[in-house]
Recover the amino acids of this structure.
């Protein structure tokens, strides 16, 4: 079982034995949460026409894409380490499963939203896509809160 | 009355009792605090990055501020109100917590920094509003803001590991 193996790794042992390592990683995880949510708000509120309405979508989506990339990378890196010492229990937790489902769908959908940017193709403002993106990232945020507050 | 006694009285209020004793009080307030954090700090950072000349360089600084302001202020209000409720509920533990002191100090720095920006630096904005890279004083306020809010988030998370 992969989760049992994760709990047996040396990194998991370090995490279990040091509250400071855990707390520091958790603090960085919270920081990356703010970066992810700020970028997700920027991108999707622009697509919804609720923010920077009179600026070109690309001007807003470009920085948002960079912010999402950096924020998700940092939150996944810290999140994986935080997951290690409690892999079996977390993997069995409904809120955690929801969180992972929202992470995959929100990140995947964001990739679809901005994939035309690198190639230089114009991204049209699309309220429906903005609304769906916002719902997915809010779902991630709420299930993340549920995971730490309901256990 | 000492500060500690005031904290003890705050903890005896019905609001504090609801947060600490009920099944959902703490969860609702902590969840609201985190969502407010995502909205406020998440949007404040974009204003700071524009001041630093790192993003949306073709959009005037005043416009970036005007568009982001409602979201920053709403998120800040949500975070502040839920934060005060959480403080009232665990006032004595927070009072004795080093990270809470660090967090308050960083919030103070962020507040003074925002005040300096609005009342001093922004007065000259006509000269550099459309500049891709604003002058040093404006860039400094952006940098201090990012630094202060980073400390607020890190110390806030550390509080939950050291208070309970």
């Amino acid at each position: 079982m992969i989760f049992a193996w994760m709990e047996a790794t040396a990194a998991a042992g370090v995490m279990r034995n040091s509250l400071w390592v855990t707390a520091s990683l958790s603090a960085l995880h919270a920081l990356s949460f703010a970066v992810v949510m700020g970028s997700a708000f920027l991108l999707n509120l622009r697509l919804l026409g609720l923010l920077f309405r009179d600026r070109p979508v690309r001007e807003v989506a470009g920085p948002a894409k960079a912010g999402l990339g950096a924020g998700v990378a940092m939150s996944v890196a810290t999140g994986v380490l935080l997951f290690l010492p409690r892999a079996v229990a977390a993997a069995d937790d409904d809120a955690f499963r929801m969180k992972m489902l929202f992470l995959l769908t929100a990140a995947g959908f964001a990739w679809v939203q901005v994939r035309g940017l690198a190639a230089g193709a114009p991204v049209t403002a699309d309220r429906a896509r903005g609304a769906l993106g916002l719902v997915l990232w809010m779902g991630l945020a709420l299930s993340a809160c549920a995971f730490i507050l309901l256990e | 009355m000492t500060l500690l006694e005031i904290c003890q009285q705050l903890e005896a209020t019905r609001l504090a009792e609801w947060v600490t004793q009920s099944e959902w009080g703490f969860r609702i307030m902590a969840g609201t605090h985190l969502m407010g954090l995502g909205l406020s700090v998440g949007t404040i950072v974009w204003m700071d990055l524009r001041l630093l000349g790192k993003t949306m360089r073709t959009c005037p600084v005043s416009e970036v501020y005007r568009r982001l302001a409602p979201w920053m202020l709403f998120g800040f209000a949500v975070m502040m109100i839920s934060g005060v409720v959480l403080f009232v509920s665990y006032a004595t533990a927070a009072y004795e917590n080093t990270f809470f002191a660090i967090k308050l100090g960083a919030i103070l720095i962020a507040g003074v920094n925002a005040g300096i920006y609005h009342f001093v630096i922004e007065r000259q904005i006509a000269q550099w509003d459309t500049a891709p890279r604003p002058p040093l004083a404006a860039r400094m306020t952006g940098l201090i803001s990012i630094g202060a809010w980073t400390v607020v988030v890190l110390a806030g998370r550390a509080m939950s590991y050291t208070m309970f």
Observations:
- The helical segments of chain A are 2-7, 10-17, 19-47, 57-83, 87-91, 94-119, 127-150.
- Chain A touches chain B through 33 residues (CB under 8 Å).
- Chain A has a mean pLDDT of 92.
- The CA atoms of residues 58 and 120 of chain A lie 9 Å apart.
